[in-house]
Write a structure and sequence with these properties.
Elongation Factor Tu (Ef-tu), domain 3; six-stranded antiparallel β-barrel; 2 domains; about 200 residues; mainly beta
């Protein structure tokens, strides 16, 4: 589990295809790796990935075919938001994020608004019922609040801290981002379906 509060921005150094999977080497940027071991989980752009190897300034992960099908941004030289997995004693400043990306969205607009950026993202129709105004959503692993919602887009506000500390500040129209719906929405749907 994660909180959606990015701890560092790293960079994908290398992507190597390995059959139906890919192996990524990631430079960890300012992420403290002293307490990370092989087998630990790190969210990379919101994708929960298992560390397969460590080096002083980074780590390696394997990415499955299923993950490659639903995620965006796993290319060489791309910046990645990084967050180590949550410990039970940690503060939960964002919202509960599993690192199981539900799909990718497309940036439609980026508008400066009083020192912030308001971004509008088009989402897949399959996610429409899970996104609610004032609800939580993870975009590239960043916990955000949905400010406005249409049938196929939502808007979020990015404060200067988020713009500076994540890769969301570099987004432009046409870019793809990873989306994870609020965990609670999944369980509500399951409960409602089971009651029918």
């Amino acid at each position: 589990m994660f909180t959606g509060i990015v701890q560092a921005v790293g960079r994908i150094e290398n992507v190597k295809a390995a059959g139906r999977t890919a192996a990524l080497t990631i430079h960890a940027g300012q992420l403290d790796l002293t307490d990370v071991a092989v087998g630990d989980s790190i969210a990379c752009n919101g994708i929960c990935l298992t560390v397969t190897a460590l080096k002083p300034d980074g780590f390696s992960v394997d990415v499955s075919q299923e993950t490659l099908k639903v995620c965006a941004g796993l290319i060489a030289n791309a910046p990645v938001n990084l967050e180590k997995s949550l410990r039970l004693a940690d503060r939960l400043d964002g919202h509960l994020v599993t690192g199981h990306v539900d799909g990718s969205g497309e940036i439609r607009t980026v508008e400066p608004v009083e020192g912030n950026n308001e971004i509008t993202i088009r989402f897949p129709a399959s996610l429409a019922r899970y996104i609610a105004r004032k609800g939580s959503i993870a975009v590239n692993g960043v916990s955000l609040t949905v400010n406005a919602l249409t049938n196929d887009t939502f808007s979020v506000n990015l404060i200067p801290h988020t713009l500076a500390m994540t890769n969301l500040g570099a987004l432009k129209p046409g870019d793809r981002v990873n989306l994870e719906i609020d965990l609670l929405a999944r369980y509500v749907e399951r409960i409602l379906n089971a009651a029918e």
